[in-house]
Structures are given as structure tokens and as C-alpha cells.
Specification:
Elements (H helix, E strand, L loop, with lengths): L2 E7 L5 H15 L4 E7 L6 H11 L3 E5 L6 H11 L4 E4 L11 H9 L5 E5 L7 H19 L11 E4 H6 L10 H7 L5 E5 L15 H19 L4 H28 L9 H29 L16
Parallel strand pairs: 1-2, 1-4, 2-3, 5-7
Antiparallel strand pairs: 4-6, 5-6
Helix pairs in contact: 5-8, 9-10
The structure holds uridine-5'-diphosphate (UDP) and magnesium ion.
Length: about 325
Amino acid sequence: MDISVVIPLFNEEESLPELSEWLVRVMNENYFSYEVIMVDDGSTDCSWQVIEDISNKNKNFKGIKFQRNYGKSAALNEGFKAAQGDVVITMDADMQDSPDEIPELRKMIIVDGFDMVSGWKKKRFDNKLTKNLPSKIFNAVARRISKIKLHDFNCGLKAYKKKVVKSIEVYGEMHRNIPVLAKWAGFRKIGEKVVEHRPRKYGVTKFGWERFINGFLDLSTLTFVGRFSKRPMHFFGLYGTLFFVFGLCSSLYLIIAKIIDADYGITNKPLFFIALTAMIIGMQLFLAGFIAELIVRNATDRNNYLVEKKIGIN
Ligand code: UDP
Ligand code: MG
């Protein structure tokens, strides 16, 4: 199968018929063999009936329905598990992303050899102040931290090699950081394509301003987890030791000063308090690292690694 299109959706009943017709047109024009997996993330409107209708008429359309609303990441994750196409495309259901981009995205994966290609909504039709500006800041930070050169990490329209989506787990609200997940899983060829962005035609947006804070928090989790989750002591232990040694040296200095000069007042020196605090913080960091190590040693996935190839072994 050439293409799997994965569409997470929550209360998008009005858009689905139009979107599916458009998808069929693009797929047929290009003679692609395809499937469209619509993941209904616990919609409370008639989205699921619409999906059933579409699927009954066209067997390439498949559906997964969640019992309740779990979020876009969960929906993507389920879609990824089910996807069978060589190239997997994700897009939003609200028709802000254009299916006409699919052939070119597929070409970048198949011909140009990208592991993953992210859409870039260069010209956006969203509210400037509440969405475009915060999103610029988020992307700039994400670029710095992850060292992935993308302008638009959170674009819903993306294309992947099949093995990329099978190697990553999108949980929580990590859908904003999928390029980072992909990079940590060892897929380094991450490209970008300017895509057409359209105003939302039906329905309303499902995300509020918290998206940006959550995005930052998730990004720092990822960075930390990617680097240190299998060896937390290397992080906590290092900073703990630095703090502790600094505190210890400062106290020793104060003590020696006191021995040499009996009139030397220790407790009215700022250094005294800094030294105490540094030793306490250092000890706590060290302990946190130690406890984290104990947890990691007992975690069932402590030795789960993504194996790229094997020979002679199934
Ligand atoms: N979505 C979802 N579950 C949710 C929230 C959103 O599956 O809990 C879907 C939504 O239906 C849409 C896509 O995620 O297909 C992007 O959402 P939206 O268009 O509201 O985001 P925005 O374009 O405002 O960033
Ligand atoms: Mg949208």
C-alpha cells in the first residue's frame, strides 16, 4: 500500500464528507493505493456516524472510535499502530490542511529519502496574537533545544516513513513534539515543506492558550528523558556534587578564617548562608539522582532499545 492517511478528529462532523471527497480525488488522480484511518477521539456529535457512512461507501476509509476524548496524541498513536502504508501522512480533520500536498510530501519521503517531512504553515490563517506569536516563540525554543531545523513543529500535516511511526510512542500531548521523538528514536533526516494553510471552515478550535505552556514543558521532559532517563545520576549527581563541593569549600574557608582570626564573624557573612544552602541543595540533588537510579534499575523497559536491523535473527 502506498499511503496511509491518519486523521485525528474531535467533533468535526461538518468537515468529514468534504475532506474525504477531496482525499479520494487526490488519491485517484495519482493512482495511489491508500487507506484513510479516521480516529474519532470521543466525539460527542455525529462524527462517528459520518465515518461509518463514508466507510460503507468506500472500503479504503477505516475508523477507530475512542470511548471518550483522550486527546490528539492518543488518536495519532492508535492511527499509527493501525497504519499499513509505506508512507504515513497525518492531517487535521478541519480542512485547514490541504490534501493536494500529499503527492509532493510522499515524493520527499520516497524519492528524496527523508524519514519524516513536516509541513510549514508559512502563511497562517489563525489569530495573530493568540496563536501565531506564541507559536513563533515555541518553535524558536524547540529549534534551539532539539537542534532540528524546523519552522513549524506542531503542524498537523506531516509525512513519515512507515518505520518511523512504528518506532515512536505519542503519549500525553507529545504530538507537538513528534519531530523530537523521531530524532531521539534515531531518525535524523527530517525535512520541511511549505504547505498551504486554510482558514477553519467548520467547527471551532479544540486547543486553548495552555497549548504553549504544555508544549514547553513537554519539550523539557523530552530533552531530559532523551538524555538522562537511563542514567539520571549523571545529571543529578553532577550538579549535586558541584553544589556540595562548593558549599563544603566555602565552609572550610570560613572555618579556617575563624581559626586564624578569633574575631572573624562567620554568621554575619553572606557566604555562610550561601555555603549552607549549597550543601543542602547538593545533597538533595544527589539523593534525587540516587533514587531515580534505583527506579530506573527496576523499570521493566530499562533495556528496551529500538533495533534498526538484524541478520540471522528474527
Ligand atoms: N483533535 C483531536 N482530539 C482533541 C483535540 C483535537 O483529535 O482532543 C483534532 C481536531 O479534531 C483536529 C486536530 O486535532 O482534527 C487539530 O485540532 P484543531 O484544529 O482544533 O487545532 P488548531 O488548528 O487550532 O491548532
Ligand atoms: Mg485546526
